[in-house]
Amino acid sequence: MPINTGTLDHLVHLTPPGTVEEASRQFEDRGFKVLPGGTHVGGLTANALVVLADGVYLELISFTYPASHYPIGSPEREQREKHPWAKKEPGWIDFAFLGNGSHTDSVAQTINERGRAEGSGVKYSPEEDGGRVRPDGQALKWLISAPAVAGRGVLPFFCGDVTPRGLRVPSEPPTNTEHPSTASGIAFVRILISSDSFEAIAGQLTSVVGKKPISSSSRDVIWDLDTVNANHLGSYARLILSVPGDEDEIAFIETSEGGTGIYEVGFYVKDGSKSGSETTPFGKISWVSR
């Protein structure tokens, strides 16, 4: 069976070191139910979760301490400084597609072969073990494969469960996915990129997703993404790659690591409940009626 490489798994929102609880309150103020997460293996980061009915979740993450907390030259300091998110500014910093949790049927190998055949140049690193411990002591394990040719946050990384996904994504009981904002799923993830990289990254994302865009122009390319519960909800998330169109977007590009990143995330909500856009303290969110 072909390996599906186009299922949106989760989005990562970073806040300053030691602020997971504060970030949780900030998202609660915007109408999201926030669940406790845990501490990742190695103790460098901790998180909380917002689980949506479409099966996608938000990972509200922060480093446990700033790099200066660890003695210079110590293994902990080296690990902290080499973390893929160590230099990221707070906000929407990354996103993950769902992997298959297998070293044998490798997602990375599948994408790399597709990239060679399509000439996109996309390349992913082999799967590596990852995990965290929940507050209740339950150990979670997964495999991670990250892009090897572009900065994290423009191409997705893959997270494939070794332990059951339900342990990592606590969608039961159903009340875990019920939010005061009525948010039920991801409408879109919009990435901004400079015009000189636009065509190349669009080709690489096509190789990653595994299907052609549903729309393409000189300013935007759009793909439909699967979600775990897309068929149940009757809607799909969209991935949008754009060049900046106004002063705010140009400023975002100029201050982002590598000149690119997730600028905006849209959430499906019930008609009449919310509209327009607002921000977390560090990132833009938009409400899409359905």
UniProtKB/TrEMBL annotation:
Entry-linked InterPro entries: Glyas_Bleomycin-R_OHBP_Dase (IPR029068), Glyoxalase-like_dom (IPR025870)
Positions of the Glyoxalase-like domain: 8-207
Highest taxon above the source species: Eukaryota
PANTHER family in the record: BLL2707 PROTEIN, GLYOXALASE-LIKE DOMAIN-CONTAINING PROTEIN
Protein name from the UniProt record: Glyoxalase-like domain-containing protein
